[in-house]
Design a protein that fits this description.
By secondary structure, the protein is of the alpha/beta class. It contains 14 helices and 17 strands. Helices cover 34% and strands 20% of the residues. The structure holds zinc ion.
C-alpha cells in the first residue's frame, strides 16, 4: 500500500477532504481517502503541499501534428490556419515519430492519463501502443465529393482495423460539419450506430461556419466553394451545429470540439437532440487561432457536460490540461475550481468510456496528481503546476 497526504484531496465524485490521505495499493488501485492517520503506518505516509486529485483526461488532441510546434502563425483566424497547415503537413516520418514520442512523454509528465486523439493516418499507432497513457483514437474522415464517399469510408475502415489490431480503442468520426459530404456523414453515422461507438466533431470553430450553413456566404464559404459539395450549394438555413447533429445518431456519445462561436440556441438545440453530448473546451487553441475564448459562461450556466482538450502543438504552446485550466480561470475567474476539475477528469473519462479513470472511487486506477501553487482563492494561475505522483 501507498499513502499520499496533502492539504486537500479532491476525489471528484465525493466532497473534498482537508488534510486527507489517499490510499492506493501497490498496483495503483485506489482504496480510500482517510481523514486521519491514526490507524495508518505513519512512517509510510508521503506528505505533500498542495492539492491531490486523479489524473487528467485530455479529450481532444492530434498527436500526429506534434512536429508542427511553433510553426504556425498565431491569431490569424481559421482560414489562414487551414492553409498554413496544408502546406506544412508533409514532413519526414522519423521526425514526426520523434515529435510524437516527445509529446506523449510531456503529457504523461503533465498528469494526463488518457487522451482522445484525432488521427488521419496510422503513424501514431506505435507510440500509442508503447505509451503509459490510454488512448482512444478517432479515425477522422473528411471529403467533399459525394462520389468518393464510399471509397473514403472504406479507407477509414482499413485505418481503424490497423489500430484495432494493435489492441487500441478506436472509432471512425467526421472532421467537421463543413468538410464532410452528406453521403460520407451517413456512412460514418450508420457505422457509429452499428458499433455503438463514440464520435467527436470540430464545431463552430470560426464565426463564418454558421454563415455558411445559414446563408451560403462568408469567409469559410469562399474557401470551400471550389469543392464539389459546394457547387450549387443551397444552405439549409440552420446553424452549423444543428446541421451536423441532424446527420449523427441520437444514441451515441458525441463530443463537440471548440464551440468557440456556439450560441444559446445551439445549446438548447443540442440538449433537445440528445442527452449524450459533451462540449469540449480547447481555450488555448481558440486563443491561438481566432484570439477568441469559447463562451464558457454560457456553456457552464447551461448545465451541460464539459470536457477539456489541448488540441495539438500546431495550435497550442503546450499539451497540458492544467494550462487549459489556467486560461479558463484567467478569462472566467468566477467558474468554481471544483467544476473545472470535473471537466478535466470525470467528464472526460465518462465520454471516453474509461470507467477506471476520472475519480477516486474504490477499484479504479485513475492516477494520482499533485497540484501546487493554487492559493486559498482556488484560482488556477500562472504559478500553478502539476506533478505526477503515480
Ligand atoms: Zn482538433
Amino acid at each position: 500500500m501507498r499513502f499520499f497526504k496533502a492539504d486537500i484531496i479532491y476525489p471528484i465524485t465525493s466532497p473534498p477532504v482537508e488534510n486527507g490521505i489517499v490510499v492506493v495499493n501497490d498496483d495503483g488501485i485506489f482504496q480510500s481517502v482517510e481523514r486521519n492517520d491514526d490507524t495508518l503506518p505513519s512512517d509510510q505516509i508521503e506528505t505533500f503541499e498542495g492539492i491531490i486529485c486523479p489524473g487528467f483526461i485530455n479529450t481532444h488532441c492530434h498527436l500526429e501534428l506534434s512536429h508542427l510546434k511553433g510553426r504556425l502563425t498565431e491569431k490569424k483566424g481559421l482560414k489562414n490556419f487551414i492553409s498554413e497547415i496544408v502546406q506544412l503537413r508533409e514532413s519526414d516520418v522519423d521526425s514526426i515519430k520523434a515529435a510524437m514520442i516527445k509529446s506523449d512523454d510531456v503529457m504523461w509528465q503533465n498528469g494526463i492519463v488518457a487522451i482522445g486523439d484525432i488521427s488521419n493516418s496510422d503513424i501514431s499507432s506505435e507510440v500509442k501502443k508503447n505509451s503509459r497513457i490510454k488512448y482512444h483514437t478517432f479515425v477522422e474522415l473528411f471529403d467533399l465529393d459525394e462520389s468518393r464517399a464510399d471509397q473514403v469510408f472504406e479507407e477509414g475502415v482499413l485505418l481503424l482495423k490497423k489500430f484495432h489490431h494493435e489492441g487500441l480503442p478506436v472509432s471512425i468520426t467526421p472532421h467537421s460539419p463543413y468538410s464532410v459530404s452528406s453521403r460520407l456523414f451517413k456512412l460514418i453515422s450508420d457505422n457509429a450506430y452499428k458499433f455503438d461507438s463514440i464520435l467527436s466533431i470540430h464545431n463552430q470553430e470560426t464565426k463564418s461556419e454558421d454563415e455558411l450553413f445559414k446563408k451560403g456566404s462568408g469567409e469559410l464559404y469562399e474557401l470551400m466553394k471550389k469543392y464539389p459539395m459546394y457547387s450549387g450549394f443551397k444552405p439549409a438555413g440552420h446553424s452549423s451545429l444543428a446541421t451536423a447533429l441532424s446527420r449523427l445518431p441520437k444514441c451515441n456519445k458525441i463530443q463537440l470540439v471548440h464551440n468557440t462561436f456556439s450560441q444559446k440556441e445551439d445549446i438548447v438545440w443540442a440538449k433537445n437532440y440528445s442527452t449524450l453530448i459533451y462540449w469540449c473546451l480547447c481555450i488555448n487553441a481558440n486563443l491561438f487561432i481566432e484570439n477568441t475564448p469559447p463562451p464558457i459562461d454560457l456553456l457552464f450556466n447551461s448545465g451541460i457536460k464539459i470536457t477539456i482538450g489541448t488540441d495539438s502543438y500546431a495550435s497550442n504552446h503546450s499539451l497540458s490540461v492544467l494550462d487549459e485550466m489556467k486560461s479558463i480561470h484567467d478569462h472566467f475567474p468566477h467558474v468554481p475550481f471544483e467544476n473545472i476539475l470535473e471537466w478535466a477528469t470525470i467528464n472526460g473519462a465518462s465520454f471516453l468510456g474509461m470507467k477506471e479513470l476520472g475519480s477516486f472511487e474504490k477499484g479504479k486506477k485513475p492516477g494520482v496528481s499533485l497540484l501546487k501553487g493554487i492559493k486559498n482563492d482556488f484560482l488556477v494561475n500562472s504559478e500553478s503546476n502539476v506533478q505526477r505522483i503515480i
